Amino acid sequence: MKKVLSLLLAALLIVTCFVGCGKEKANEIFIGATGPLTGDASSYGNSVNNGAMLAVEEINAAGGLNGINLKFEMKDDKATAGDAATGYDSLMDEGMQISLGSVTSGSCESFAAKSVEDNLFFITPSASAANVIESRPNAFRVCFGDPDQGVLAVDELEKAGYKKIGAIYDSSDDYSSGIYAAFKAAMAEKKITYIEQSFDAENKKDFSTQVEALKDCDAIFLPIYYTEAGLIAKACVAKGCKAVLFGCDGLDGVADQIDATVTNKISYITPFDVNSKDEVPAKFVAAYKAKYNETPDQFAADGYDAIYAIYEAMKAANITDADIEASELCEAVKKAITDASFKLDGATGEMKWDASGACTKVPQIVEVN
Fold first, then answer.
1. Which of 6, 92, 278, 323 has the largest count of CB atoms under 10 Å?
2. Taking Cα atoms as reference points, which of 98, 122, 54, 59 lies closest to residue 304?
3. Positive or negative CA dihedral for 158, 160, 165, 168?
4. What is the pTM for the complete model shown?
5. CA distances (Å), origin 258, targets 18, 219, 232
6. CATH: 3.40.50.2300, 3.90.180.10, 3.30.300.180, 3.40.50.150. Which one for 147-270?
């Protein structure tokens, strides 16, 4: 009997050892995020996820961060605030130490509110609403903020010398309304008149009324997403409207929504030009195509740059402990990324950050062929 008990005890100790060993943390830093991997906005989430994963693989293949690997995981939030909050809690339970926040602005506001309590550093690739990073010292972004794009659009339209300008925006969408509010204020400041039209989530399939009202315009500003922009372009054809269609980064992808019948010039503000010959974006595009067999969009480039921003800031802060707590890592990364000497040469251009969390970089105007 004693022999049997001894054998059972030995077996139990062995099992306990394996279970305990299995719970030991790997030599890696865990970067978490949420984004829409399913649903209507899934193209954005999957693009960011793909770009981020590509960056992590490159960094790990090159030796990681001082010998520490990076781990990245995105939880599906379906572009809803509730699912983003749930995803945040799940990621923190799994040991998230630093983050890309959320992909869309509504979700990221929910994510950001929880992150402040834990002093978790995040740098969102694409949540552009101003409130996402306002008054949150742990919050940063890679993309342009909505107000920035509205002001930039006014500058570009004024520079082009258009005499009759129209605008169509989505009154039910935070992204569109945020950009439009800044555009409206900047136009008023410059005393430039224009004609306004709008739509909402319940009425975004037929734009014949809006285009009819603006068909004599030289240019129409579209602070909206590419799906609706494609329908507006087709409505322009039907109404004989020859106006230049000019938008912001939400128009990335509009080329896939139109055909050869659309002859209007379409261009938009973006930090990412997929056809750029510059070394970093060209290298990114080639690597992305090789891995995913598709051409990257701006969201993929933003995800890629967000990972590299975290990596370079951690490297500048000389992070050597994979077990570092989220709050301690946040303080170290904040100090590094806001230092005057810190900059990132990314797929979306050269970037710098200050304590506001906003990203400073040069916009590009891309024309749809």
1. 92
2. 54
3. negative
4. 0.85
5. 58, 18, 10
6. 3.40.50.2300
Q: Are strands 139-141 and 219-222 parallel, antiparallel or unpaired?
A: unpaired
Strands 219-222 and 344-346: what pairing? unpaired
The model's confidence at residue 369, banded by pLDDT at 50, 70 and 90, is confident
The full 3-state SS of 250-274, as one line of letters, equals: HHCCHHHHCCCCCCCCEEEEECCCC
- In angstroms, how far is CA 226 from the centroid of its own chain? 16
Helix (H, G, I), strand (E, B) or coil at 124: strand
C-alpha 146/C-alpha 204 separation (Å) is 21
Q: At what angle do helices 174-189 and 105-118 cross, to 10 degrees?
A: 100
At residue 351, what are phi and psi to the nearest 5 degrees? Answer: -125, 145
3 pLDDT exceeds 80? no
**Separation CA 343–CA 156 (nearest Å):** 26
The widest CA-to-CA distance across the chain, in whole angstroms, is 99
Q: How is residue 303 written in tokens?
A: 């995800």
pLDDT at 17: 44
Q: What is the rounded distance in angstroms from the CA atom of residue 118 to the CA atom of residue 351?
A: 26
Q: 172-225, pLDDT tens digit by residue? A: 988 899 999 999 999 999 999 999 999 999 999 999 999 999 999 999 999 998
Angle at 180 between CA 152 and CA 167, to 5 degrees: 90
**Assigned CATH for 28-143+276-361:** 3.40.50.2300
125's tokens? 């690739």
**Mode of pairing for the β-strands spanning 364-367 and 266-270:** antiparallel
Q: Do domains 28-143+276-361 and 147-270 have the same CATH topology?
A: yes
What residues are paired with 203 via a beta bridge? 200
User: How do the domains of the chain map onto residue ranges?
Assistant: 28-143+276-361, 147-270
What is the SS3 assignment for 35? strand
74-126 per-position pLDDT tens digit: 999 999 999 999 999 999 999 999 999 999 999 999 999 999 999 999 999 99
Give, as one character, the DSSP assignment of residue 8: H
Residues 6+ apart with CB under 8 A from 206: 231, 235
The CB density around residue 220, as the number of other CB atoms within 10 Å, is 29
